[in-house]
Design a protein that fits this description.
five-stranded parallel beta sheet, two-stranded antiparallel sheet, disordered C terminus
Length: 182
């Protein structure tokens, strides 16, 4: 049974996440602040950490950064769970080392599936995809990598189409079959 460390200051969300993860078979250690979560992770490293970003004392970004600095906790996968939905928030979360980013409000079913997917990837020894789940800051600045959207999914970069003199128009009248192109 995998152990999940949860740091969430909102009691209702902490309760919901705890309930859903227990139903999925996970053991949960829940905290309402980042300082307690870091202390617990150092003493008893979990299989996964789920961190709210906006918490008193120590933010989820600071907790993630601290976990990544310590060799004893550096490989713990981290999912950020937050109301911060701007692209800059998401890229900042991935830049500090988060493995996934889930925006509130969230679907409990999708949330549980994402937790399972991160844990399965880690147990299989598969690193996060370097070119999609955690785009480098340089590639984001250059606009060449896929970037996360507010829903936590990846959006492919927009590549300008090359101009051509060929055009396609739909036939709207005449002897053509419906839907035939001319």
């Amino acid at each position: 049974m995998a152990t999940v460390l949860l740091a969430e200051d909102d009691a209702d969300i902490r309760l919901l996440v705890t309930l859903k993860l227990k139903q999925a078979g996970y053991q949960i250690r829940a905290f309402e602040d980042g300082l307690s979560a870091v202390a617990d992770a150092r003493e008893h490293p979990p299989d996964l950490a789920i961190l709210d970003i906006m918490m008193p004392g120590m933010t989820g970004l600071e907790v993630c950064r601290e976990l990544r600095r310590d060799p004893a906790t550096a490989k713990i996968p981290v999912i950020l769970l937050t109301a911060l939905a701007r692209e800059s928030d998401i890229t900042a979360g991935l830049a500090v080392g988060a493995d996934d980013y889930i925006v509130k409000p969230f679907s409990p079913r999708e949330f549980t599936a994402r937790v399972s997917a991160v844990l399965a990837r880690v147990q299989a020894g598969v690193p996060p995809p370097a070119d999609s789940a955690q785009p480098s800051l340089a590639s984001l600045a250059a606009g060449s990598a896929a970037t996360p959207t507010a829903a936590g999914r990846l959006r492919s970069p927009v590549i300008p189409a090359q101009s051509s003199n060929t055009s396609v128009t739909a036939a709207t009248d005449g002897p053509s079959s419906p839907g035939q192109l001319s």
